[in-house]
Amino acid sequence: MSFLTPAFFIGLLAIGIPILIHLTQKEKKTIVDFPSLMFLRRIPYTSVRRRSIRDLWLLLLRVAALLLMVLAFSRPWFSAGSLAAKLPGSTRDVVILLDRSASMGYGDRWARAQAEARQVAAGLRGDDRGTLVLFGSNAEEHVRATADRVRLSQAIDAAKVGAEATRFAPALRLAQSILAQSARPRREVVLISDFQKIGWAKQEDIHLPEGATLTPVSVGGGNTSDVGVTTVTFARNQFSGQDRVVATAGVANRSAKPVADVPVSLEIDGHVVDTKTVSLAPNGTSPVTFAEFTVADENVRGRITAGGAGGAGGAGDAWPADNSFFFVLSPGRPVRVLIVQPDQADRDASLYLATALGIGEAPKFDVETIAASKLTGAALDKRAVVILNDTSALPAGAADALTRFVERGGGVLVGAAANAKWSGSEQTALMPGVLGAPVDRPTGRVGALGYLDYSHPVFEVFRTPRAGSFSGVHFFRYRTLDPKANRVLARFDDGGAAMVERKIGGGHVIAWTTSLDGSWNDLAVKPAFLPFVRQVAVFLSAFQNADAWQIAGRALDVTSKVQAAPVGAVGGVVSTPSGERVSLTDNGRPAFVELGEQGFYTVRLSGARDAARPLTVAVNIDPAETDLTAVDPQEFVAKVTGRADGANAGKEQALADITPADAERRQGIWWYLLLLGAGVLVLESWLANRLSKGPGIMQSPQV
After folding, report:
1. Which of 160, 202, 264, 692 is the most buried (most CB within 10 A)?
2. How far is CA 330 from the centre of its chain?
3. CATH hierarchy code of domain 227-329
4. Topology of domain 550-624, per CATH?
C-alpha cells in the first residue's frame, strides 16, 4: 500500500493529547473554612489513582479516531501489483501451455506438470479466462477461454503424455494468436515444461502481444539417467529367393555413469530371435548387431528392446518409453510394368523400353510385353504401370478397364506415334487431350525440346547435367495434342506439346506425343533415355522406398501407402498402439492418420485390392528427443522475448499508464476510512457521556 499525501502522518502526534488528558485528572473538592491554619503543617497529598488510566476503552476510541482521520487524509492506495488484481477491468486471459512431449514421461515430470497446471487453473478469479494448449511437435487447443475452473482442471487430468518430440515454437505461436484476439487488459502465458534444449531453434521468431507476460514453470532439471535404443539400420541380401536381413541397433547411455551388461533383444512378430549384451561408457553409444533373419511375408513386425527387469534400462528405468524401437519390414518386391504394343509390331519394337527398365535395382522393374489385342482387365491385375507403346484402337472394354486401373492408383504412359488411332470416347476417357495429325519438321531442320518443367518429378533429376541432357536429342516427327486444362510437362521448340499429364482418381496418365523407339526421334540412343524412362515409371507407379518406421507427430497419407486404394470416399478402420479403433474417411481426398503414439498402427481400407492384408506402420520417438539436456527457463524466456526479465516486464508495461493519483482516485479507500473515523467519534461521545454520569468523589461535610 502507498499514500498519495504521506505528510499527513505528522498528525499522528496528536494521539498524545488524549493520553495526556487521561493521565492528568483534575481534582474535585469542596473548600472548608477553618478558623486558623497557622498551627497546622502542610502535608502533600498524593493519589495513585490520578496517575493511572482509568477509562481505557475511551482512550482507545479517541486514539483510533485520530488514527483513522490521519490515514484518510493521507489518501492510501494499493501498489500496481495489488491493483491489477483489485481494480475493475483488470481481468486476465491466461494461456496454459502444457508440454506433453515424450520426455515428459521421464520420472514424475508429467504428474508434477499436471499439478502445476491445475494450480494455475485454480488461480483464476472472477471473469478471468483460461485456455489449455497441449503441445509436443505440434500444438493443439483443448479448452478455449473458459472461466470454468472445473472444466479446465478436468481437461488437464484427462491429458496424457504423447510420443512426439519437443517443439516450443508451434505452442508459442498458437498462444500469440490467442492473446492477439483478447481484449482483456492482462494477458499471460504460463509455459509448463521440462525445457529440453532441442525444443528451441535460434531462427524461430516469436512476438507475443505488447504487455503479455511469459512465465516459465520447469518440471525438469536435475541429474538424469537413461538407457535407450536410438536407431536401427538394416542390411539385406538374397538367399534362395528370400530376403535375409541383418539388423543393427544403436544403444545410448544418457547418464554420467557407465552401465554394464545391458541386455538388448530382437523380437520378430512377437518372438525373441536373438539377445545380446552391451556395456556403455558415460554418455556413450554402442552398436549392437543381431543374427540374420528371413523376411518372407508382408508387414513383418520387429522390436528391439534394451534392458531387463530391474536393471539399467529395465523396469527400474525412469523413462521406459525409449527402451523399445519398433519397425516393419516387407520383402523387396519389383514394380510390375506391362508394355502393350501393336499386334503387327516387330517383337523388338519395345526393346529399348524393356532394356531401360530392366537396368537398375532402385527400384527393380518386372517387365512384360503383350500385344494390344490381349489387353484385358485381368492382364492389368497387380500391375503398377502400363505403357501403351504406339498402340492402335484398343480392344472392347480395354479403355474402361484402363480408366478403372488409373482411378485405383495405377499409371499409364502413352507413346503416340503413327499407329496411335484412338476413338473419341477412348480419348475422352483416358487421354490427356485430343490427338491430332503428325507434324513433320522441314527437311534439314530437326526439332528439339524447348521447355521442360523441372519442378515435376519426371524432369527434376535433369536439373543437373550429370543425369543427362535433352539438348542433343533430335525430333523428326510428332503428333499434335490439344492439352486442354491438363498439365504440360514439356514442349517442342515450336510450341507444340511434347508431354502432357492428366490425373484421374488416384493415378496419372502421361502422353508422349512422339515415339518411344528410334522411328521419330533419336532419344532411345541418347544417355538421357534410360533415366527418363525410369523416372516416368517411378512417378506413375507412385513408388516409394518402404519406410521401416515413422517418427511420432507426423501424418501418414494412407491412400499413398496402400497400393491401388479405391477412389472416392475411402472407408476404413485404424487401430492405434493403445488399442483405440478410429473410423477413416476422406470424402474423395487423401486420407491421413495422425501418428501420435509409439508402437504399431494397423490400417484396413475397405475396397482396396489388398484389403485382406492390412497396412502396418511402426512409430518411434524422435531420436533427438532422447537427449534430456535442459535449458535454463529464464534464459529461454530471454531468447523468446528478447528480455532477460521477460516474465515480469509485461506486468509493468500493462499498468505503466496508471499514475498514483489515478490509482488512488479509482480506489477511494480514504472515504471508507473517514466514515469509519466519524463512526468511532460518535461511539466515543456516547461512552464519554455514560462515564460522566457515574458516582463522584466523596466531599467532606462543611463545618
Report:
1. 264
2. 31
3. 2.60.40.10
4. Immunoglobulin-like (2.60.40)
Work out the pLDDT band at 651, boundaries 50, 70, 90: very low
Q: Which three cell numbers stand for residue 470?
A: 535433352
Q: What is the DSSP letter of 678?
A: H
Residue span(s) of the chain under CATH 3.40.50.410 come to 94-222+629-654
Residue 567, pLDDT > 70, answer no
First to last CA, the chain: 66
Cell of 442: 522441314
Angstrom distance (rounded) from CA 86 to CA 668: 12
Q: How much is the pTM?
A: 0.61
Distances in Å between the Cα of 337 and the Cα atoms of 66, 386, 399, 411, 445 are 104, 6, 18, 10, 36
**In this structure, CATH architecture of domain 335-541:** 3-Layer(aba) Sandwich (3.40)
A 10 A CB-CB count for 467 gives: 15
- What are the backbone dihedrals phi and psi of residue 98, each rounded to the nearest 5 degrees, phi first? -105, 115
pLDDT band with cut points at 50, 70 and 90 for residue 406: very high
What is the location of CATH 3.40.50.880 in the chain? 335-541
Q: Which three cell numbers stand for residue 107?
A: 520420472
Select from 3.40.50.300, 3.40.50.410, 3.10.690.10, 3.90.1150.180 the CATH code of 94-222+629-654.
Answer: 3.40.50.410
Distance CA 561, CA 651 (A): 51
Q: Where in the chain is the domain with CATH 2.60.40.10?
A: 227-329
Average pLDDT over residues 147-170: 92
- C-alpha 130 chain-centroid distance: 20
* Ranges 91-95, 333-337, 654-658: which has the least confidence: 654-658
**Which CA distances in Å does 330 have to 73, 297, 301, 515, 616?**
87, 6, 9, 37, 10
- What gap in Å lies between CA 474 and CA 492, rounded to an integer? 10
Q: Which amino acid is present at 440?
A: D
Specify the DSSP element, H or E, that contains 671: helix 669-692
Rounded to an integer, what distance in angstroms lies between the CA atom of residue 158 and that of residue 163? 16
Q: Which string of DSSP letters, residue by residue, matches 447-469?
A: B-EEEE-TTSHHHHGGGSGGG--
Check: CB of residue 323 under 8 Å from CB of residue 229. yes
The residues pairing with 440 across neighbouring beta strands, listed in sequence order, are 477
Q: What Cα–Cα distance (Å) separates residue 513 from each residue in 180, 340, 468, 479, 501?
A: 55, 16, 21, 5, 12
d(CA 64, CA 50): 23
Whole-number Å distance between alpha carbons of 537 and 409: 13
- Of 48, 77, 59, 50, give the one whose Cα is nearest residue 17: 59
The three-class DSSP label of residue 170 is helix
Bridge partner residues of 583 (DSSP): 573
With CA atoms as reference, report the closest residue to 49 among 28, 32, 18.
28
C-alpha cell at 179: 492473446
**Per-residue pLDDT tens for 345-386?**
887 888 999 999 988 766 789 899 999 889 988 999 889 999
Beta-carbon neighbour count of residue 560 at 10 Å? 15
Separation CA 643–CA 207 (nearest Å) = 12
